[in-house]
């Protein structure tokens, strides 16, 4: 990979469609399985969901022998620590990320940003303008889709098509796809997306509860965690690996 650290965000102005989940899953997959050096900037004020998730993960690892041994073996094999999660506001996210990269001994390949779910929040547009790539989950709910397409068109017109900014592209992908739904519904939506000249990824994410599965209990399989990658058994049928592979191709990993 080239020496420039990439700034990447899963971003949308509609809550509950998976931007925080995909930030964690992509960061953990690339850092723990693929060997990239990743950092995450959590600027989703006030909940700071990823910071809270790391706290839960750490507490469970420290109190559970199974997870403690799993973590020990993982980090010994990797010969590196868990990726850092930096708390920030939308306004100072880029400054905090840049300072961390500058002062960190090892090269950081990708910084993932978890930004607030509205472009009206202070500093959000400025942070989005500093991204290299934005990935936006969409669902086949009409209200969610209309809101998301409005967000995507705004970012595309203001930032992607403006050579003054770093942003190379915004890419939409389907999330929470129910296979029982009529396929022509997606065909109609995809024609609208194409007519708006927005980019739609080929990978879709099925509607499955595993995307909400965190560390819990004695020895369950792991899916969403800031300290471990998703369990390979749970990745089957989730399309997560396909999604990250497609993202890797887009951002030229």
List the helices and strands and how they pair.
Layout: E1 6-10, H1 19-33, E2 38-42, H2 49-63, H3 65-78, E3 85-87, H4 93-103, E4 110-114, H5 124-129, E5 133-138, H6 142-160, E6 169-174, H7 183-195, E7 199-200, H8 232-235, H9 240-251
Parallel strand pairs: 1-4, 1-5, 2-3, 2-4, 5-6, 6-7
Task: Tell me what you see in this structure.
It is a single chain. Helix 2 crosses helix 3. With 253 residues, the protein is α/β, with parallel strands linked by helices. The longest helix is centred in the middle third of the chain and has 19 residues, at 142-160. It has a seven-stranded parallel beta sheet, with helices on both faces. It contains nine helices and seven strands; from the N terminus they run E-H-E-H-H-E-H-E-H-E-H-E-H-E-H-H. It has one domain (6-251): Rossmann fold, CATH 3.40.50.300. The model has no long low-confidence stretch (mean pLDDT 90).
């Amino acid at each position: 990979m080239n020496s420039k650290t990439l700034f990447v965000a899963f971003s949308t102005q509609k809550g509950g469609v998976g931007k925080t989940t995909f930030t964690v899953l992509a960061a953990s997959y690339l850092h723990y399985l693929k060997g990239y050096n990743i950092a995450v900037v959590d600027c989703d004020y006030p909940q700071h969901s990823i910071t809270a998730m790391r706290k839960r993960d750490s507490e469970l690892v420290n109190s559970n022998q199974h997870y403690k041994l799993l973590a020990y073996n993982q980090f010994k094999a990797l010969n590196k620590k868990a990726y850092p999660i930096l708390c920030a506001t939308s306004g100072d996210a880029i400054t905090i990320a840049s300072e961390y990269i500058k002062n960190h001994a090892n090269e950081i390949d990708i910084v993932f940003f978890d930004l607030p779910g509205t472009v009206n929040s202070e500093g959000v547009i400025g942070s989005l303008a500093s991204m290299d790539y934005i990935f936006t989950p969409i669902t086949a709910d009409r209200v969610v889709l209309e809101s998301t397409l409005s967000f995507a068109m705004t970012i595309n017109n203001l930032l992607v098509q403006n050579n003054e900014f770093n942003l190379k592209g915004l890419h939409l992908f389907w999330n929470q796809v129910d296979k029982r739904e009529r396929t022509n519904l997606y065909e109609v939506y995809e024609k609208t997306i194409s007519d708006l000249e927005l980019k739609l990824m080929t990978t879709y994410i099925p509607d499955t509860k595993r995307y909400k599965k965190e560390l819990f209990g004695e020895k369950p399989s792991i899916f969403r965690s800031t300290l471990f990658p998703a369990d390979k058994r749970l990745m089957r049928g989730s399309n997560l690996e396909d999604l990250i592979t497609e993202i890797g191709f887009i951002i030229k990993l």
